Amino acid sequence: MAPLKWAWAAVFIWLFFSLILTCKCDDVENSNESDRGDEVDQHVEESSNEEVQAEHETDAAFKDNNADSGMNDIKSFTTKDHFQEELVIRPLHSGDIYASFQFRTQLETDFLQGKKVSHYRLFPKSLGQVLSKFSVRELHISFTQGYWRTMQWGQPFIPAPPGAELWVWFHNTVLDVDENWKELTNVLSGIFCASLNFIDSTNTVEPSASFKPLGLGNVTDHRFLRYATLPREIVCTENLTPWKKLLPCGSKAGLAVLMKSEKLFHSSFHSEAVHIRPICKDRQCSDTAWELRQTLSVVFDLYTSGQGKKDWSLFKMFSRTLTEACPLASSSKIYVDVTDNPEGELFDLSPATPTFDTSVVLGDRRTYAVYDLTKAETFGQLRSLNLLMRWKGEGGDMLRPMLHAERYVAGFGLQNGEIHTLIYNNHPYRAFPVLLLESVPWYLRLYIHTLTITSKSRENKPSYIHYQPSKDRLRPHLLEMLVQLPPHSVTEVTVQFERALLKWTEYTPDPNHGFYVGSSVISALVPSVVAMDINSTQERPLFSSFFHTKEESSYFVRVYTEPLLVNLPTPDFSMPYNVICLTCTVVAVAYGSFYNLLTRTFQVEESSLPLAKRLANVIRRIRGVPPL
């Protein structure tokens, strides 16, 4: 039995060791396989990393190529944007200073084919979207505080009436012009923080001849034109701030740095405007572009505020100096009118400049000292430019404007009246026609049969007249006439009217102040003293290239008269207050007495006893005896 036990023990030991060796071999094989798997995985990972890296390199190269091509496309696109800025300073013979800012932004696009622009660099996107959405061909809007005194200051570069003015040409593809006009006024009201939303059918007209397109295209269908004014619009910093934000550099650099609100609105005249129109880039009109021209005109009364001295400087006018031009501007210049100072005997201008420019502006040849802000030597060593003019003598005689106008209301009472418009032709020997536009509110009912036109005490019949009568609470009167002005004459246009009675809800909060009537508009080709430049090139200064001249012998002028302030029959709005006070007093007294009678309780009191009996009753109560 013992050998058998040892045999079984040896078998079990052999089986045990064989199992151990088998497990070790499996572990070794598994470890080898795992090592080989790790090597394979590492190899696959390395190969995948190489592939990914190759893909990244390919993508990077592709992106670089796309970026290069995109940058080339952007560069090729951005080269189509141009921005120019300039400031013209003209000392006036009245002692005032006229400063005119002009900023021009051009965006080349094929607008005639209806091509939409998706990328904006210098041209403001807000206005670009407005042009595209409402199919606008031309847009002209202005905000003016004060009245331009033509006889004292001469003609402005770009005229504007007091208050707000808006006139728009739409594309001939617009189906409902009135609906587009209504939505456009609401959008512009939000962009410029103005009261343009008050423009409606009661103050909108469709001129037939007065407002022709100033840009490319000869549109004659006046159904796509709308014109409206708000003569009572007040201009303040809320309108100036969004206007400055439309500039590529804003008010951070360039000439816009001088636009300090405190100084601009402390002036005799202030006008800011935006003009958008299509133009040709060359004479052949092979390339077209949108032109955005922002203008700001200011007249400073430095002669009165400067203790009788006409000396001026940039710091005195604007409380700031210039340190750099707008980096995005291709041209940035300042023009100072030195026509009356050919030999330097009237005033000294510092710093001096060797550059001068001669331009024909409004029929007169003017000489300007030019300061180019894109050149570093203009600012000197202090890197600051502060123009200074010191007067040494009195100025010469002012050239009288060839055309100017006045308007006033005559008559007495609150029923009838008469509008007088005086048009002056100061040319000594030339007669020329003018186009007069009158837009009168519906509550002044014109008697068109009383229209009279006299020149030199003689009747002057218009060669063209267009009249559209008003409709109560729907549309205003529209009167357009083409009148020939004799040389050196005063032409008077008069028409009678009757004041209408308004509903009490149609009066303004201050009805006794009166109701405003918009300015008359006079358009004319005035004979020029010198030959005008008919070549429209990009090198011309901005102030002399807004109105394109087709003839050398004449130039275009638009003149605005004063707005009228008319009193209407006004009820005594204090009577309702008096009636309310009297009624409330009567009701309070009557109702109070009646209420007391209804709510008060009455008790019958016994007749009073004699004094002896009352004393006896008191004694009896003390004694506990019933009273008598």
From TrEMBL:
Coiled coil residues, start to end: none
InterPro entries: PIG-T
GO biological process: attachment of GPI anchor to protein
TM segment ranges: 577-598
Comp. bias regions, Basic and acidic residues: 33-46, 53-66
Keywords: Membrane, Signal, Transmembrane, Transmembrane helix
Region ranges (Disordered): 31-66
Signal peptide start and end residues: 1-25
GO cellular component terms attached to this protein's record: GPI-anchor transamidase complex
Superkingdom per UniProt: Eukaryota
Protein's name in the database: GPI transamidase component PIG-T
Lineage: Eukaryota, Metazoa, Chordata, Craniata, Vertebrata
